[in-house]
Sequence to fold (274 residues):
Amino acid sequence: MKKLLTIILAAILLVGCSSKTEKTVDKDKDLQSEAINLKVGLMGSDSSVWKHISEVVKEKGINLEIVYFDSYSIPNAALNDREIDLNAFQHHSYLNAEVEDLNYDLVSAFDTVFAPIGIYSEKIKSLDELENGQTVAIPDDVSNGGRAIKLLEQAGLIEVNEEAGLIPTIKDIKSNPKNLNILELSAANIPGTLAENQIAVINSGIATDAGFTPSKDALVLESIEDENPYINLVAVRSEDKDAEWIKIIEEAYRTDEVKKIIEEDLKGSSIPVW
Fold:
């Protein structure tokens, strides 16, 4: 009987050991020979850049799963709640606002691209042709709405109170010589307004989806500057900022090969910042 029990126990141990074909380690520790399983959160439904990166880092012992979200309010919450390990969908201004408002313990790991907002038209080729009293649609979220107002000021169409800072609102407009009617809309709906109105301020990715090439078609395009608060980033929890795995992901991202993918796939809607 004892001999039979010994055989059974040995068989159970053998099966248990053989079933562990892949080991994982604590993500808070440095990389070892075992694979690390990570999740990156993105907006949308596809990303050639991150598919490429996931293949590159796999050779370095990182299994990177891509998780797509359909609302801007979710990726930071998911990161803060440890449902994902990093995300790539936002700029510094957006992250800073969410950290302050929602008390998230998140930081920027590294910068990625700049996606300039622009003024577009289907009816005129220069702002010199812009008629008085036109309706101009801008994004209705605080961050991109502020960017749009600053861009209208950059274009010489309005003046904004200096005290408004980086994120002015319509109430901060102190001069509007062309009597523009500034209409706040969901960003995705703005291109449709160009059928009736001469200009609109459109986010880079949405402009590309609408058939524009930002670097060629924008009447005015937001300029990139040092320490621009609208440069996009990869965010992590603060405890992971110096982890070995995020350094490997950064090295895989900031390459000439990824730069080429961005330039070819995104048609000028995003500009690499390295």
